[in-house]
Amino acid sequence: MSGAYYEKVARINLSTGEIKVEKLDLDLARKFIGGRGLGTKMLYDEGVATVDPLSPENKLIYITGPMTGSGSPSSGRYMVVTKSPLTGMIACSNSGGVWGARLKYAGWDALIVEGQAPEWTYITIEDDKIELLDAREYVGKLSEDLDEALREKHGKEAAVLNIGPAGEKQVLLAAIMNDKDRAAGRSGVGAVMGSKKLKAIVVKATRKALDNVADPEGLKAVNQRCMKLIRENPVTNQALRSYGTAVLVNIVNNIGAFPVKNWQGSYYDKGDAISGETLAEKYLEKPGACHRCPIACARVIRHDGKIIGGPEYEPLWAYGGDCGNDDLYVINECNRLCNEYGLDAISVPCTIAAAMELYQRGFIKEEECDGVPLEWGSGKALIEWTRRMGDPETPLARLMSSGSVRLCEHYGHPEFAMAVKKQEMPAYDARAIQGIGITYATSNRGGCHVRGYMISPEVLGLPKQMDRTVTEEKAAWAKIFQDLTAVIDSMGNCLFTSFALGAQEYADLLNAATGTSHSVEQLLETGDRIYNIERMFNKAAGMKPEDDRLPKRLMREPISNGPSEGMSSKIELTLPQYYEARGWVNAFPTDETLKRLGLEECVGK
Amino acid sequence: MIEVRLFATLRQGRDKIVYLAPEGLAQAADVLQSLNIPAEEVSILLVNGFHSKPETPVKDGDVLALFPPVGGG
Description:
The structure holds 2 protein chains of 2 kinds. By secondary structure, chain A is an alpha+beta fold. Chain A is built from 24 helices and 19 strands. In chain A, helix 2 crosses helix 19 (474-491), helix 17 (434-442) crosses helix 23 (571-582) and helix 19 (474-491) crosses helix 23. The two termini of chain A are 35 Å apart. Chain B is mainly β. Helices cover 10% and strands 27% of the residues of chain B. Chain B has one helix at residues 28-34; strands at residues 2-6, 17-20, 44-47, 50-51, 63-67. A 5-stranded mixed sheet of chain B has the order 2-1-5-3-4, with no helix packed on it. In chain B, strand 3 (44-47) and strand 4 (50-51) form a beta hairpin. The longest helix of chain B is centred in the middle third of the chain and has 7 residues, at 28-34. The relative contact order of chain B is 0.31. Chains A and B meet through helix 8, helix 9 and helix 18 of A and strand 4 of B.
């Protein structure tokens, strides 16, 4: 054991019931760090890029980073890496809570789950011991109920990861839930778990801290320095704790980059009613924190007499302005349903918004709606269609549960799907914020904001204020943000630490924990390598250059209202600049780029 | 009138929206001063939806939005 890796991977074959313990390839781990980077490399090497994502041949990797559970700030992250049934490309969904740290404390760097169980199964892990147990009695259970039931059975100290009914039904927008309201939310990873008839993974660990870091005293010193930076930073010390990510509603709306009614507009005149300020005033019980997190951005709210997890910025926008709804109670209820059914709380409401536009334009008929018309702003529709998408029974519910692209293509109008690579874009209008459009277009997992959060410089002014309306310098910055994000995701730290920490702090944390001696340049090159291995997975999976495109609406329909009225995306200018910065031609790395990054195994592929 | 929208902690002890007569208010800094908001408490200052500085000129009909340091994602 050395350097914050336990050097142990469990390969669990659900078809045969065989469980093998494999040694982590430490050289590979150091080259790809862990988490997102190492998980993607492992999946690439497993050769699953061309398989049907919902077949037994797909593999599901649950992986921690070297910093997961290390005691460094906000270091409770784990990732789920698999081939996405939504996009047909790489999926890497990242979640907090305590489950990831518990898996690490049990002595596992990663689990590779393959095959398909003959009957519904769940996995228990107690330190070295891994067992497959009968889950038939839990089929149909909502996620939080199952969490309670399994902790009742296996001990309150157990951490539970599971899928709800949506994952069981292989809904393409299904999430994997852990610790009740934390989610590996995107790209349909819950459907892959459901396709394997795996209902839950319960983890118990004797260890309460990592006992194998390379330089414990050095790590303690870097941790203290990082903690001081986090405490001194107004965003990480106070702002996220007070209002959560929900504080963005008013900011993004006030610059006119808050998509309304499926991106037909971009300013919502009732924005304040669904804002972080209003959420805090009316419903907030307290902030919530993941494993050893000083930031505490999560919202714990009062809802129908219960204390539950509350919405992030994304569902506030997507169930709010994007669906023309200003009733915050409805958003809280829909967010609860997403957690209970195990659904992506971005893609589900975005797909409802697309359906509402199809209904508005007469393409979806009232008789298809089974008594609940898809009218803009209808709280009844939002609640009922979320429930229906979580456990689809009717033809329209089945279509909608497959995401906006498949829905809109069915009706012959793919232009109303606000998605990239078949995954719905989140809550920032790329017509009004030029850099985030590069992130959306080039994200390897499809429409996503956290693959290179250009909102930080373009809207929040961090680390410096950039003009959101221009394209200059944006391609180079997007690449740097993407590379550093890939590093943070691979380490197992939360991305939000980057509001206070810089690349040097991440290098120092990683070096102290693993015994490496990465410079900042080497660390960013590692991020570049990770971004490229993801891209090579996508290439092997059949990605085409035209998949790096934004929906046509963003280029052809200028914003119709608010402060950014008249703006459109200039992605045609920035995309070539981005490819040049990456060393890519026609959306893919050249052999020279692959060799420079030490990805010789991908050359010629 | 100049409309000033206050957000997050800047709302504490103040109204959410304040309307000010434009007389004597030449730039955003004058607006902050008239509301007793120290400039260092304002991290994002929008004038009509665009990021601005305290020295940005203001006029009748403008909408200012003021935010303390905030983050999210």
